[in-house]
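In practice, a research group might receive sequence data for several interacting partners and want a quick structural hypothesis before committing to experiments. The following worked case mirrors that situation: the sequences arrive first, and a predicted assembly follows.
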Amino acid sequence: MAPTSGKRRVTITDVALHAGVSTSAVSKVLRNAYGVSPEMRERVRAAMAELDYRPHAAARGMRGRTYTIGVLLDNIRNAFFADILEGVNTELRGGDYQVLIGAAGFGEEDQTRLARALVDRQMDGLILIGPGFPRTEVLRTAATVPTVVIGHHDVAEEHDSVVDADALGAGLVIDHLVRLGHRRIALTSTPGNRGSGWSGTPERVQRRGYHEAMRRHGLQDLARVAMTAFSEEGGYRAGMELLASADRPTAVFGGADVAAMGVFRAARELGLRIPEDFSLAGYNNTAVAALAPVRLTSVDQAGGLMGTTAARLLLERIEGRTRSVLMTVSPSLVVRGTTGPPPATEV
DNA sequence: CCCGGTGGTCCGTCATTATT
DNA sequence: AATAATGACGGACCACCGGG
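A structural hypothesis for the assembly, expressed as tokens:
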């Protein structure tokens, strides 16, 4: 049947013929269904092995499951996703399910198209990592296909949610910096996809946490946010804006590690030392943050745990749970070399 | 009961037959 | 001749049936 070349793939009919049983017997063995003797099971297993048989996912899809889970994310360069995916794989390892990953980019259109493509290919479930396409579209999809959304704090009956306590995470950073003696602490953040209907994006919740923490310390008047993109380039621009100004902050909280890297570059260009001239903290605790020349203080979001949790919730949904679940993962501060006391003149 | 098999079913494609 | 309706697949699932 394969359009490209000669030999037809092996089907359960071939297996049945080879083993001298009916196709349904083979099907039962495949599904571990009731009503097959151990001897027959063995015979069928042997036949499958000899013929190098593998179930046809599309055919299974016609009748129900494909045993495939689709993961949608925006940018595969974001190292944080690697942690999540590792978690997903850990949870699914050894099971019947296979994971397919799609990196759609940041655009709404592209993300929507990818999400639909996953549905059209009969994924049994979807894991959407910080989707940037319209929330209405996500809800419509989730109404049909079991879905878990990672990142956004917006909850809905249609899907489960796995989030990081981003407000708390931001608080950890501010508390740490204040304890060191900082007062002028700036944040780099991102507006995200406007008008896509998400009100609980991680960056927004993080921003709220930042302002709350500043207020808690009586520093609300010194709060300052540089809106940028969560990318190296975005961080660089935000860094230039903040560090070149007259009332330069003594500490910069990069809302994401990638952005913090950009601030690094800006600092070098301006001849500012870290942490002597100003402190820098990131968020995500990605692999780069731990590298020896970087040693970036950051917030660990337990990405692996988010991944395993998302996968587990999704399997539950696939098995029939309809009530939606929200799981919140606690972040923790990882102090490294980029944060220290503010310059002496400031104290 | 157990175990094994029959026959209908899913959805989309493509070839065959019927209708205008 | 062009268009429309029909039906036979493809590969696997599953409710149900029947013989020991």
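Before designing any experiment, note the following. The CA atoms of residues 167 and 206 of chain A lie 5 Å apart. Residues 1, 9, 11-13, 23-24, 26-28, 30-31, 33, 55-56, 58-65 of chain A lie near DNA strand C (CB under 10 Å from a C1').
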